[in-house]
Amino acid sequence: MVVPELSVVAGMMSVMTSIAENTRTTPPRLGIAFVPVVPPERFRSIVLAAEESGLDELWVWEDCFKESGVATAAAALAWTEHIRVGIGLMPAPLRNVALTAMEIATLSRMFPGRLMPGVGHGVQDWMGQVGNRAVSPLTLLREYSTALRRLLHGEKVTVDGTYVKLTDVALDWPPSPVPLLYVGGEGPKTLTLTGEVGDATMLSWAGDDESIRRRVQLVRDGLAADAKPGALGPHEITIGQIAATGPGSQARVDAELPIWGRTPGPGDGVAGDAATIAADVLRLGALGCTTVILQPTSDEPDLEGFIRFLGQEVRPLLAG
């Protein structure tokens, strides 16, 4: 058993105090990201490791032109019994909203309560490659998320928007229960929009405390202007964080961050033992994030082992 250094313990106690001061009664949920730099044939063993380790959530990315988010989510749900599975994020320009609603509804009815669908702008260069780059991504995401949410709530939808056009469209098999619709993005206007049109928000990356506070506040600003019907409870906020453990972990995290457009700095990525990683997860929870999705580095030498480490060693520390 590794005994954490006193400085790490003190840091965890400080974070726990901050959580109490912010009236959070539960720690953030802990999830793992399946990044599509890993070939699809490895997916089953990763999913089973996540389920067996006791992690709360597994998230799959739908990055062009790698692996389908819906196909991988369906497989993960079929192979497991308990873990929740998120799709972050399905690119709105790439998918007709009626088709997305059908896929979400079908999976939600097959595996009630375990699917977490998410939509976003999509990477604009990729959208240009397929001929679907929107002149106003913000307008598209507003129209798309609003129509998608209405369809999932069983409404018959007619809309003649700039991008979304539907005539008397209703799902024959709307989901029950209706899943939370995650909407994600990075810019200030998009983050405010996620609070307005989504049931939950996906923040792309962690960072220093002030940047996270600022982004969380933008989401809350959108919630204050929220007029959507049928709110499904408190607004969830999910955030990603690159993580590694073991020898050379900090160097691996520092090398991974630029791959995703990040510069190593305070709060960007976390490396170390279970106590160190748990302290960072609790930090993010204290700043308003309800789920922390840890993303392994592309060169993680033992992906299944890393997942088991998160579930068996890090997650128990989050409960105090």
TrEMBL record:
The keyword Oxidoreductase belongs to this UniProt entry's keyword annotation: yes
InterPro entries linked: F420-G6PD/mer, Luciferase-like_dom, Luciferase-like_sf
Top-rank taxon: Bacteria
UniProt KW keywords: Oxidoreductase
Pfam families per UniProt: Bac_luciferase
Residue span(s) of domain Luciferase-like: 38-262
Protein name listed in UniProt: LLM class flavin-dependent oxidoreductase
Source species: Kineosporia mesophila
